[in-house]
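Progress narrative, work stream C.
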Amino acid sequence: MTFEFSAHVAPRDVDVSFTVGPGETVALLGPNGAGKSTVLAVAAGLLRPDRADVVLDGRPLTVAGEGRRRVQVPPHDRQVALLAQQPLLFPHLTVRDNVEFAPRSRGASRAEAAAVARHWLDEVSAGELADRRPSQISGGQAQRVAIARALAADPRLLLLDEPMAALDVAVTPALRQTLRRVLADRSAVLVTHDALDALLLADTVVVIEDGRMAEQGPTAEVLSRPRSAFAAQIAGLNILTGTWRTGSLTVGDRAVHGMVDGARPTEGGAATAVFSPSAVSVYREPPSGSPRNLLPARITEIEPQGDRIRVRAGALSADVTPQAVAELDLTPGTEVTLSVKATEVTIYGT
């Protein structure tokens, strides 16, 4: 099963293209308002784009564009299931009846629908909830039932719109493991803001910024070598982009030195530097001594991160001890110098 998506929605200024291969899960990452939910709405048949080629296993689901014969397969006939942030279970039906609804609506007999519901409820560890109403189960349990209901429709493509965003943090790990199990060998598109969701559930990441695809690639590669600001942000990494000149990355009027990963960037071409906040030291005055990258900055935010303190200076971050924050008297607005050794910086061509 291959899902090919290309669509332009002019009123929302979204223009995105990507492909989901057989048994592949693609994660759509991006800030709020980037266009991720618009993509899912087009894929599910809930939004008519201005231009599109949306094809599922060779079958056109949406075709649009000037001079073209429009195709718009209705949502119920697309063989696509959408799992939203909220479970949206039918409140007047039992859990079992909720899951049986999809096969029954496709013409399955009562016995066949019951067998399908039993299978998927057991698959998501919710079989014991079958006789309860949605008002009698927790939010995490309701989302498990919603997953079972979506899969009971036997979709060729599963769309997941931040399925864990509305859940308590205590139940998220268990549901993540459930999704990891049921998504194995199943084609899916997952919208998420969580790097862990992407790492554990997705084979490929597509980063969307301002309605356009900013980068795309294998999940581990994108999150360890991000080329977009948002991917670096959710991966918890610092990122600097600039031009490769005479053996270093030039950012504004400053040279940033690091270790080149892969092929050496082209002279005068675009390049990116990535480094961890834990590799950054903060000084009130520029330090001397061993060679290092020194970046003047102004602190914009200070926040706890476990036993460390995350010091943010615009787009850059440093993880330091509470003692260092107190000794340096760091507060928002303080002018500082961020220091990072060249051996801690990875540079690659973009």
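Work stream C, second folded protein:
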Amino acid sequence: MTGAVPAVEVHGLHVRYERVEALQGVDFDLPRGTALGIVGPNGSGKSTLLKAVAGLVQPAEGTVRVQGLPPRELPPGTIGYVPQVEDVDWQFPVSVRDVVTMGRYPRIRPFQRFSAHDHRAVARAIEALDLGAVANRHISELSGGQQQRVFVARAIAQEPLVLLLDEPTTGVDAATEESLLQLVRGLVADGLPVLMTTHDLDRAAEWFDRLIVVDRKILADGTPDEVLESGAYAGIREHTHTHGHRR
């Protein structure tokens, strides 16, 4: 029965960039219908962990499985990945609707026309992120919060089986943060597994079912309340502020 297979399985994961070990022996499983928050200081390997799950970086050691398979062996569109805003070229000449529509491209074979289902998926994603009023505007004309919602909408339009969000609330306004929170909780309630990196722990218990603290290794893993009470995150934040940020 496929339902018994965790949505994401990471075992003994080591990732290296040249001589730098970004992740050391990371282990966790993520069942369907769970929101997992990943916290840690700058340079702790949070984004690298998401990229490993997305199949964008290869493990030096260990294994990553999504839906029981290595990420690079999955059908296109299985994983929805939203990188940090800084990774994006804002001058690319596309409208909001164009960007969201790109979420369907992995699902379409070469020369295949858009189906009614594809159009519905795009429309649903635009509606879910409240982008209807700006759907025809150029992406660079939008506020930071609107831009972030567009890229989340593109990932949602894919109809992924796993959603990865890299600091989606950084630099957004309170209304955007609230809309993203409600969206994530709704998707998780429908069974979607979500992995999200964040610096903000004020509302961790609202966002996440489970929280892990990463500083190259996993330092704590449990419910948000358990992890916050453990002091693991406060300890590494204090160490980081004392010794300077690491990249």
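The chain has a mean pLDDT of 89. No further action is required on this item.
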